[in-house]
User: Fold Type IV pilus biogenesis protein PilN from Colwellia psychrerythraea.
Amino acid sequence: MAHINLLPWRAAALKAQQKEYFTILAAVGLLTLALVLVINFYYQAHIDGQNSKNQYLKNEIAQLDIQIDEIKTLNAKKLALQKRINVVEQLQRSRNVGTQVLDEIAKIIPNGIYIIELEKQGNTLQLTGKSESNNHLANMIRAVELSDLFVDATPESITADDGSPKLLSSFKMKVKIKGLDDAKKGSK
Assistant:
């Protein structure tokens, strides 16, 4: 006898098809979720690795900053020590300068010139005095230029004294001391 199926086979086929569809959909969803999690873990591992590298670099930079600060303080101490050494060397070089200056002034001042005041500021001497004539003053300037200790004689003023019994001219002159001038150039 022929089998007649009275059951709604189309509804059963539709249910089976829907069940298969939802199973495939769930599998694709789970697979997608797993793929997203794997990609997330992969990139999170890269981010964590980069963060650890960044932290390592920050720690190394902090140590180098500490070393740089130490170097700066050492350089400051070195400069202060160098300044002290330069002062001691300059004092050593210039300890006999006063005697040498007075000795050299006695040699270069010709007859007819009288020094009233002698003032030393750094490496410059300010000479104030009186002269019987401008020729004597010119001879003194030439003697300064030929001197081993002095250089750069520059007269600042020459004025005639009308009230004095002798006709004397007052003068002011600046002279630089070579030894002290060279010491300052050497320390720069």
